[in-house]
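A further point concerns the way the authors explain their paired sequence and structure data. Nothing conveys this as quickly as seeing an actual entry. An entry of this sort, consisting of the sequence and the corresponding backbone structure tokens, reads as follows:
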Amino acid sequence: MTPLRSRTLPIACGALVLLAGCGSSSKTSATPATASSTSATRPSTTPTSTAASPSALQAEANSAATGDIPDNQVFITFRDATEAYSIKYPEGWAQRGTGARVTFRDKNNIVRLVVTHAAPLTAASIRADLARLRAAHVPSGPQPITINGRRAFKVVYTTASAPNAVTGKRVTLVVDRYYLSNAGKEAIVDLGTPVGVDNVDAYRLMIESFRWR
């Protein structure tokens, strides 16, 4: 089942938000181009974390805004042998980290994946995890979904960047967070986009490309 998305209006940092989708309203254009067969294989040397989940994503007010991911965007596959997963991401995006914690970024379009050791996912365990988020708040429980035939959970939150040193403006980021588990491991995938930028189709392709190995 494909997760639903809807347009999220900008809000101030710290507002309580529970949304049904991330980013602006879905485009009516065709599904993004088929992902490239090119792959970026980088065996991990980073040990798996057993700490709590990552903090909320935040945009950078001093980073230039970025537009929608184009429909003809080429995607390549990131594979990690140690943590045993793969995911597609847009070609040309900057990669930071590997293994248990990796981020792909194009200005304020941000995708982050963190793998930890964890017990099987439950709505209660995710609510406890979300209570530790800083700069974002979720007032009620996560949404159970299915991704590639596997049970998963989705939460949508918003954050605001620190003010721009010159203009004082803030960038509001809308983030789809997905919780996926397999054989004692948990992957937390945050897909963040600035309000007003439409990455619905591209981000759907990315989360549906996630595979445990």
Q: What stands out?
A: The chain has two helices and eleven strands. The CA atoms of residues 70 and 100 lie 29 Å apart.
